[in-house]
Specification:
By secondary structure, this protein is α+β, with helices and mostly antiparallel strands. 40% of the residues lie in helices and 18% in strands. It has 9 helices and 10 strands.
Length: 359
């Protein structure tokens, strides 16, 4: 049995290391930062975020906000556009033939949505900004500086009057010419971006400190994790008291397995709480804590399944029989658990933003 456990532990250590290396290379949550060049792609989808339905009694502060900085290290006259696109119009960017489409074909649906003073005056939504913005200055569309969030070059407000919806932050190497036609940028567009996406005004974040950084489907996740953490602390205390009240002779292997399940679950919830609380304030969270928390959660669930299977085979809490008496069960469980973690690893390895959007 010790041989099985040593191989099992080694495989999981290697798996954790690989997942850790992959996850650190992924984009950092809802504060999105990075550099984009039109040399590699005509457009890039930077983020997906679910904006909540506005509160009619406080529409100004319950809107979705996209704010931050988009500038360029070089000045070559190249111009692109940053768009905030609703899910209903994003399919045009997902088609494989999109890479061969002209800017006019790619953005024809956006023209009916976005407002631009010179060419798109019939648009109703303020969902586009010409990029890069002038270094150290506001974007050219920001004609009301008092409405721009401090230390930002742009601020866009998203209104969802009827229902929550996913929106996508997209950068495209296109511009409108003097005839108001979409054209591809001839020169290379290079931008550094640092953008925040929030539900509700950043100026009023203290009213909902554990919610405004989260997409609408993840609202209140911090409170849920903290509540579960408290409940497992109570369960852990009850289990500890039951162990203390029993003498050492009656401390059977299934009690040890149950203790391991509770400890792993509590440890995982602790890390998840740390991640979501940090995320509530910086929009990024702690990816390493999130990873280890998920590993602990999966392991505790698998051990709970093992315990239930063994109990169904007659492995009661009232005798001292060892787990080695059920080698076939343990081997099959080990294979299924390894497959579970392998799928978990594959999910992180192959999960990219476009795959998430298509799903």
């Amino acid at each position: 049995m010790s041989h099985y456990l040593s191989i099992y532990n080694l495989s999981h250590l290697l798996l954790i290391k690989l997942i850790y290396c992959i996850i650190l290379q992924r984009s950092q949550a809802l504060r999105i930062t990075g550099t984009w060049s039109s040399r590699n792609n005509q457009f890039s989808i930077l983020a997906k975020f679910g904006f909540q339905q506005i509160d009619p009694l406080d529409a100004e502060h319950s809107r979705g906000f996209v704010y931050g900085n988009v500038s360029s290290p070089i000045i070559n006259g190249a111009r692109g556009v940053l768009l905030i696109v609703p899910k209903t119009l994003v399919n045009g960017f997902l088609n494989k033939a999109t890479l061969e489409q002209s800017c006019d074909s790619l953005l024809q649906n956006i023209s009916s949505l976005a407002f631009e003073a010179e060419c798109l005056s019939d648009g109703k939504d303020d969902v586009m900004r010409w990029i890069p913005c002038p270094a150290g200055k506001l974007c050219v569309e920001e004609d009301m500086p008092e409405k721009v969030i401090n230390d930002s070059q742009m601020t866009l407000r998203i209104e969802e009057p009827s229902a929550p919806q996913y929106w996508y932050v997209i950068i495209v190497a296109c511009y409108l010419d003097i005839h108001c036609l979409w054209k591809s940028s001839v020169k290379e567009v290079i931008v550094h971006y640092d953008l925040w996406l929030t539900n509700g005004s950043p100026l009023m974040h203290y009213l909902n400190p554990f919610g405004y950084q989260f997409s609408f489907e993840e609202q209140n996740s911090a409170e849920i994790y903290m509540l579960l953490f408290i409940l497992y602390i109570v369960v852990g205390f009850c289990q500890w008291r039951s162990v203390m009240l029993c003498n050492s002779a009656s401390f059977f292997p299934r009690h040890q397995l149950l203790n391991c399940i509770i400890v792993l679950k509590t440890f995982g919830l602790t890390l998840h709480c740390l991640n979501v609380i940090t995320f509530s304030f910086d929009g990024q969270g702690i990816l390493f804590a999130r990873l280890l928390g998920e590993i602990a959660r999966l392991m505790s669930t698998c051990l709970l399944c093992l315990l239930l299977i063994l109990l169904s085979y007659g492995w009661s809490f009232g005798n001292s029989s060892e787990i080695l008496l059920y080698p076939k069960v343990v081997i099959i469980w080990g294979l299924l658990t390894s497959a579970h973690f392998l799928l978990f690893f594959i999910n992180f390895l192959h999960s990219r933003l476009l795959h998430t959007i298509i799903c």
